Amino acid sequence: xxxxxxxxxxxxxxxxxxxxxxxxxxxxxxxxxxxxxxxxxxxxxxxxxxxxxxxxxxxxxxxxxxxxxxxxxxxxxxxxxxxxxxxxxxxxxxxxxxxxxxxxxxxxxxxxxxxxxxxxxxxxxxxxxxxxxxxxxxxxxxxxxxxxxxxxxxxxxxxxxxxxxxxxxxxxxxxxxxxxxxxxxxxxxxxxxxxxxxxxxxxxxxxxxxxxxxxxxxxxxxxxxxxxxxxxxxxxxxxxxxxxxxxxxxxxxxxxxxxxxxxxxxxxxxxxxxxxxxxxxxxxxxxxxxxxx
Amino acid sequence: xxxxxxxxxxxxxxxxxxxxxxxxxxxxxxxxxxxxxxxxxxxxxxxxxxxxxxxxxxxxxxxxxxxxxxxxxxxxxxxxxxxxxxxxxxxxxxxxxxxxxxxxxxxxxxxxxxxxxxxxxxxxxxxxxxxxxxxxxxxxxxxxxxxxxxxxxxxxxxxxxxxxxxxxxxxxxxxxxxxxxxxxxxxxxxxxxxxxxxxxxxxxxxxxxxxxxxxxxxxxxxxxxxxxxxxxxxxxxx
Lengths: 293, 238
Known about the structure:
The complex is a heterodimer of chains A (293) and B (238).
Chain A lengths: L1 H31 L6 H17 L4 H24 L7 H23 L15 E3 L2 E3 L1 H23 L1 H11 L1 H6 L4 H27 L6 H15 L4 H21 L8 H15 L14
Antiparallel strand pairs in A: 1-2
Chain B lengths: L5 E10 L2 E11 L4 E6 L5 H8 L4 E8 L2 E2 L5 H6 L2 E4 L11 H8 L9 H11 L1 H5 L10 H13 L5 E5 L7 H18 L2 E5 L3 H7 L2 E6 L2 E7 H6 L1 H8 L2
Parallel strand pairs in B: 3-8, 3-9, 6-7, 7-8
Antiparallel strand pairs in B: 1-2, 1-4, 4-5, 9-10
Helix pairs in contact in B: 3-6, 6-7
């Protein structure tokens, strides 16, 4: 029982990473109908930025928030410079552009920082935390807490601020939004900025566990896809719930199903993606997209 | 003499390669209600879209003397031209109240938003009752009311209305038109109305333009045009 609870919490911890990245994917998908294949690599690159700041001697939380700001600005710049010109191109074109971004960020990180793994600090204590006789890793709990705080902030932002409302409106109905005076192009850019910021949180939180290297987010990105597919690509709440479920399932399967172990864990994500697409393509919380043809 | 509220001259518009307006010219004075009549495909909706700069255009549109050429739709709106589009443009996954808040985004002044909420809820009590409901769950008539209300939340100088009667029960249409008249009287907002229902539009408007295949072919005060035989035969059917 103890192991079970530990594994569930550890699953929630990795799941919260998937949730953050899946939320980033869903936000961009909701606004522009594009799956951003570079989301994970953008997150990885942001984590390197954080590493650079820490390496230069900046205190942890200062570097953390500075990185979020840089990621936010970077996301906006990418949308304006790279995505904007192909905005009205066929979906496949935009997908290829995001895959191009993936390769660029990966190579850039390798070129600047080399492919050697770097240790990344955790802001949380080394000593494990005991709750009711069960031992938990402090970083795992901290990771869950940070993700929850970020999610809460973003929910409050979208729910209660005029800018959040304008962004939701722009994502839903661009034509009507323009007729209300909303600068839809900028709202999409802000969306990219916010998504890049969630990605950065995911990267910084996962780096102490996975160690920092240019391919760090590859697996995480696939789990995030699984999470977004499971929860529904059209539902932010679904992305979060999906992320947590995928994290827990992955962990439990890895622990209890012997032949899968750690080596075949990634297969679980792919199985989830295929399973969901076969059984309920819109995901747990997504709405079925109806299109008049 | 001050510039007219809206001055359209030689307006042309294209959808892709297809030209839909062939040099439309007209003028709207502040404070009035003007309607554009015409058959299907005459270019009524396109005229409104051209004013809001939602289609490719040539020619000039001046609003309070200021040319709108080269502006983006959102900048035209910010000058005080609200546009309730064909099909109502409802944000179906936002609540009624959120729809109205979105309508406030382009206001020149953020003062008086709460009074304006009271005002439009006064015009359309059903929207107040349903303010926490998702707008997609409203009936067609209620969504049309919401479209008008959302446009009014901009506190516009000019309100462009595209077929507000489309697909609605006569009783609902009468109610909406009564409120349009009230809004025009209360706040002095000028209205440019595009309507298929000519009898209704002539009743509301004080000035009429008749559009045929992308050109203005006739214009005048509505009481004069109501007595015009060709109008009566073609558009009023008696």
